[in-house]
Amino acid sequence: MADLSRRRLLGGGLVAVGAAGLAAAGGGAAVASRTPERMGSATVDPHGAHQAGIETPPQAFASFVALDLADGLDRDGLTGIMKVWAEDIRRLAAGRPALGDTEPELAVDPARLTITVGFGPAAFDVAGLPDRRPSWLRPLPAFAVDRLEDRWSGGDLVLQVCADDPVVVSHATRTLTKNVRSLATVRWVQRGFRHAVGARPDGMTMRNLMGQVDGTVNPAPGGPDFDRQVWNQGDPEWLRGGTSLVFRRIRMELDTWDELDRPARELTVGRTLSNGAPLTGTEERDDADFEATDRYGIPVIPPESHVARARPRTADEQFLRRGYNYDDDGAGLLFAAYQADVDRQFVPVQQRLAEHDALNQWITPIGSAVFVVPPGFGPEGYPGDTLLG
Ligand code: HEM
């Protein structure tokens, strides 16, 4: 074992699996031949036009960490945090210990670790650049369904730390927060999980804790819809290749949900529980037919069902959902949506759902935060360098 670790540290055993590689490795054979060693040593490149962790096929575990900047911190201080994090990210993503890592052994198998950095509204005041703050970077409007708690909301900075190994997530989270302790304090940490690697065929859509197939209608990584929906196209120029994160902690009322029979559950969402097919189809990826009626003239997919209310009314109303389950302190969904423009894409959909959605009886938003996610950075750069540099 020691030998194996040493060889890996020297680079010999590292298997680089980029986002595309994993997406392509969908077949059963790839799963069967995967050894735990190889899964742990898989890496995702942290550099590029976009930050890692958004287009990356979702890892099994995530921690979302919000931090508040220390009073009196200025632009140099904020830039300093980003430079420290850039170095930490570079090292940890490659399976190398961070500088001064107190638990270097925990860095060896990064298990597709990605760390994505975002700025909350106040970061622009700290940086002395309030004019550069995107107009949509502010708390969401209050929705009638909200029961928001401070302890799950807001933040000046966010880290989305994802990996296929929860020990890696924990170590990376501690390293990054510890290394900037005097400059920023942790406001909240929210931990989430999906299915373990190897538990199901790669590429299969996850299930949430209501048992539903969740994430079917989403832009395909690398495709034109993804580019259009998720990445800022250069307005403003510093944000080209960046995006926004809407993060909501949504509690599920599982005890009352349990009282519903199966057909009622399926009518609430508009899709089947068995494979997530629309109620008008048989396969998960079949197009939903919202016009179809039964022999009594009643719509097959109820107009008040979650998907009928959530589906886009305009081409703008689309975004990437990359959420995680949680079951500490209640159960629910760490809903994470990425879009180029919060006001244009996300808010109209959330507004419509808040007005009416059959699912609302069993879900309650209890946390909310909005962040801008700066573009990707290069081997010499850091998150936000196009803004702060
Ligand atoms: C679709 C569950 C919250 C937006 C779905 C689907 C499920 C689901 C099972 C169908 C499969 C799929 O396409 O993913 C949930 C649960 C939620 C929740 C359990 C809360 C705990 C939200 C929120 C939004 C949202 C807050 C946005 C404000 C959407 C959209 C779709 C969708 C846009 C795709 C609609 C379509 O075009 O067919 N959701 N959802 N969901 N949901 Fe949610």
TrEMBL record:
The protein's Enzyme Commission number: 1.11.1.-
Q: Name one Pfam family in it.
A: Dyp_perox_N
**Record keywords, A-Z:** Heme, Iron, Metal-binding, Oxidoreductase, Peroxidase, Signal
Q: Has keyword Iron?
A: yes
Answer whether the UniProt record assigns the keyword Heme to this protein: yes
Q: Which domain of life is it from?
A: Bacteria
PANTHER family named in the record: DEFERROCHELATASE, DEFERROCHELATASE/PEROXIDASE
What is this protein's record name?
Peroxidase
